[in-house]
Protein backbone atom coordinates (compact mmCIF):
# COMPACT_ATOMS: atom_id res chain seq x y z
CA UNK A 1 0.00 0.00 0.00
CA UNK A 2 1.22 3.47 -0.87
CA UNK A 3 2.23 5.79 1.95
CA UNK A 4 0.08 8.88 2.31
CA UNK A 5 1.81 12.10 1.36
CA UNK A 6 -0.40 14.37 3.44
CA UNK A 7 -1.52 14.14 7.03
CA UNK A 8 -5.14 14.82 7.91
CA UNK A 9 -4.09 18.11 9.49
CA UNK A 10 -2.41 19.17 6.23
CA UNK A 11 -5.52 18.21 4.26
CA UNK A 12 -7.72 20.32 6.54
CA UNK A 13 -5.30 23.25 6.16
CA UNK A 14 -5.57 23.01 2.36
CA UNK A 15 -9.36 22.95 2.57
CA UNK A 16 -9.32 25.98 4.89
CA UNK A 17 -7.30 27.90 2.30
CA UNK A 18 -9.93 27.08 -0.32
CA UNK A 19 -12.66 28.26 2.05
CA UNK A 20 -10.83 31.55 2.53
CA UNK A 21 -11.14 32.26 -1.19
CA UNK A 22 -7.96 30.95 -2.77
CA UNK A 23 -8.87 29.65 -6.25
CA UNK A 24 -8.97 25.86 -6.36
CA UNK A 25 -6.87 25.70 -9.54
CA UNK A 26 -4.06 27.70 -7.89
CA UNK A 27 -4.32 25.74 -4.67
CA UNK A 28 -4.07 22.30 -6.25
CA UNK A 29 -1.12 23.46 -8.36
CA UNK A 30 0.70 24.72 -5.23
CA UNK A 31 -0.01 21.57 -3.23
CA UNK A 32 0.68 19.21 -6.14
CA UNK A 33 -2.58 17.26 -6.14
CA UNK A 34 -5.24 16.58 -8.74
CA UNK A 35 -8.60 18.27 -8.79
CA UNK A 36 -10.23 14.90 -8.10
CA UNK A 37 -8.10 14.47 -4.97
CA UNK A 38 -9.08 17.94 -3.75
CA UNK A 39 -12.80 17.25 -4.12
CA UNK A 40 -12.44 13.81 -2.50
CA UNK A 41 -10.74 15.49 0.46
CA UNK A 42 -13.45 18.14 0.53
CA UNK A 43 -16.16 15.50 0.61
CA UNK A 44 -14.44 13.62 3.43
CA UNK A 45 -13.02 16.39 5.62
CA UNK A 46 -15.05 19.54 4.86
CA UNK A 47 -16.01 21.52 7.95
CA UNK A 48 -13.68 19.76 10.38
CA UNK A 49 -11.57 21.63 12.89
CA UNK A 50 -8.16 20.42 14.08
CA UNK A 51 -9.53 18.90 17.32
CA UNK A 52 -12.21 17.07 15.36
CA UNK A 53 -9.54 15.77 12.99
CA UNK A 54 -7.60 14.27 15.89
CA UNK A 55 -10.79 12.71 17.24
CA UNK A 56 -11.68 11.33 13.81
CA UNK A 57 -8.22 9.81 13.49
CA UNK A 58 -8.54 8.15 16.92
CA UNK A 59 -11.98 6.78 16.07
CA UNK A 60 -10.72 5.36 12.77
CA UNK A 61 -7.75 3.70 14.48
CA UNK A 62 -9.99 2.26 17.22
CA UNK A 63 -12.42 0.97 14.60
CA UNK A 64 -9.59 -0.78 12.74
CA UNK A 65 -8.34 -2.35 15.97
CA UNK A 66 -11.82 -3.61 16.84
CA UNK A 67 -12.32 -5.03 13.34
CA UNK A 68 -9.06 -6.99 13.66
CA UNK A 69 -10.16 -8.25 17.07
CA UNK A 70 -13.54 -9.39 15.72
CA UNK A 71 -11.83 -11.15 12.80
CA UNK A 72 -9.45 -12.99 15.14
CA UNK A 73 -12.26 -14.04 17.47
CA UNK A 74 -14.41 -15.21 14.55
CA UNK A 75 -11.52 -17.32 13.28
CA UNK A 76 -10.98 -18.82 16.74
CA UNK A 77 -14.68 -19.64 17.00
CA UNK A 78 -14.70 -21.29 13.57
CA UNK A 79 -11.67 -23.41 14.45
CA UNK A 80 -13.22 -24.52 17.76
CA UNK A 81 -16.52 -25.38 16.09
CA UNK A 82 -14.65 -27.38 13.46
CA UNK A 83 -12.78 -29.32 16.15
CA UNK A 84 -15.98 -30.02 18.10
CA UNK A 85 -17.85 -31.17 15.01
CA UNK A 86 -15.33 -33.92 14.19
CA UNK A 87 -16.09 -37.33 15.55
CA UNK A 88 -13.29 -38.78 17.56
CA UNK A 89 -12.99 -42.51 18.15
CA UNK A 90 -13.85 -43.50 21.70
CA UNK A 91 -11.40 -45.22 24.06
CA UNK A 92 -10.81 -48.85 23.25
CA UNK A 93 -11.18 -51.39 25.98
From TrEMBL:
* GO terms, biological process: DNA transposition
- Protein name per the record: Transposase
Report the domain of life of the source organism. Answer: Bacteria
Tell me a Gene Ontology molecular-function term this record carries. DNA binding
Amino acid sequence: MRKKRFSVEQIVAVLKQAELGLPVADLIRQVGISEQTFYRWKEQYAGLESDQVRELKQVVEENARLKRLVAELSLDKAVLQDVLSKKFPGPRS
